[in-house]
Amino acid sequence: MPPAAKASPSGPPPFDPYDPLGLDDLLSDEDRAVRDTVRRWAAERVLPHVAGWYERGELPVIRELARELGAIGALGMPLTGYGCAGASAVQYGLACLELEAADSGIRSLVSVQGSLAMYAIHRYGSEEQRQQWLPRMAAGEVIGCFGLTEPDHGSDPAAMRTRARKDGSDWVLDGRKMWITNGSVAGVAVVWAQTDEGIRGFAVPTDTPGFSAPEIHHKWSLRASVTSELVLDGVRLPADAVLPGVSGLRGPLSCLSHARYGIVWGAMGAARASFEAALDYARSREQFGKPIGGFQLTQAKLADMAVELHKGILLAHHLGRRMDAGRLRAEQISFGKLNNVREAIDICRTARTILGANGISLEYPVMRHATNLESVLTYEGTVEMHQLVLGKALTGLDAFRG
């Protein structure tokens, strides 16, 4: 057996209410540097403005933000080459946590750019496609989007109706995609379509005739985010637009797994921001002659929130280490997304009760995070889909189709 760890001569460090388990000890100096860089950028460039963007339902500076995120290495972080940072999975996760602590819409911008569009091209594209798109996407000069979900086919992408047919050496695409983050500002869309060879992916320049991306309005969630429909009416592409490295659902599903991993971390960012707002409020808000943090029921809420928040961060760390070791399975990512998003929403709702009526004000981040997480709960796999993924893994029986 290894020798027992020796106690520090000065004893354990003081209890930190913002890091009660001492999870910061799990990080290397480089990890902390990445985290602190993203946290500082979000504090300076997002937090002063995001409540206004959310209230107005817009992200007017998305192209500017994308270039800034590229400059700090946050786009395509875990990818190597082509101007990408080659960061570890844990470092990418830490960045997602800090971005979503500012707003889910900002984390979605980064996630769709790097974990979906760039990841698809990096893993399944030709060398020419990688050279054409990835350096500019890593720099934030070109924004990407990922066209999989359709108006009538969300959880069942195998039934997609978007079709690509051969016409001589060209491909012609027709169909619709729905709820596409970054769609109307993208320079390239990775679109998945049915072909005679099975489902294939295509790198579609968005200035191609027949392609349009009308923005979706009237959202009550992810309001500081660009969400669009993709319309493909006879979009003609050359033969080399197809991603040559994959056919079938394995391609888009592997991209989704990569993006879901970022959500495991990101959801804890929204939860952390809400917990910290509630903790600070409980220390200063007075009722019946003392701060409400001095009442047992408030302390019980704060204790339960802290437990679930830091368990979720610990789970994200564990999955990140497994990804870095090449041992992370898709079912384990489903485990993380199911747990962390569900617990994050509960933390936000509990935080709202501590803030009382102030909890619904955009002066505080809690209601904004709670409504954003309603979308995060659904996209890239609903609760039911992740339950069935885990159920199949546990029993060996497939319940997806009756």
From TrEMBL:
**In terms of domain of life, where is this protein from?**
Bacteria
Gene3D superfamilies reported in the protein's UniProt record: Acyl-CoA dehydrogenase/oxidase, N-terminal domain (1.10.540.10), Butyryl-CoA Dehydrogenase, subunit A, domain 2 (2.40.110.10), Butyryl-CoA Dehydrogenase, subunit A, domain 3 (1.20.140.10)
Which UniProt keyword terms apply here? FAD, Flavoprotein, Oxidoreductase, Transit peptide
Q: Which InterPro entries match?
A: Acyl-CoA_Oxase/DH_mid-dom (IPR006091), Acyl-CoA_Oxase/DH_mid-dom_sf (IPR046373), AcylCo_DH-like_C (IPR036250), AcylCo_DH/oxidase_C (IPR009075), AcylCoA_DH/ox_N (IPR013786), AcylCoA_DH/ox_N_sf (IPR037069), AcylCoA_DH/oxidase_NM_dom_sf (IPR009100), Glutaryl-CoA_DH_mitochondrial (IPR052033)
**Acyl-CoA dehydrogenase/oxidase N-terminal domain sequence ranges:** 28-141
Q: Which biological process, per GO, is one annotated for this protein? A: fatty acid beta-oxidation using acyl-CoA dehydrogenase
**Domain Acyl-CoA dehydrogenase/oxidase C-terminal span(s) in chain numbering:** 248-394
Positions of the Acyl-CoA oxidase/dehydrogenase middle domain? 145-235
Q: Which cofactor does it need?
A: FAD
Q: Which GO terms describe its molecular function?
A: fatty-acyl-CoA binding; flavin adenine dinucleotide binding; glutaryl-CoA dehydrogenase activity
Renumbered to this chain, the signal peptide range is none
- Region annotated Disordered, chain positions: 1-22
Q: Which family does it belong to?
A: Belongs to the acyl-CoA dehydrogenase family.
This chain belongs to the protein called Glutaryl-CoA dehydrogenase
Record organism: Actinacidiphila bryophytorum
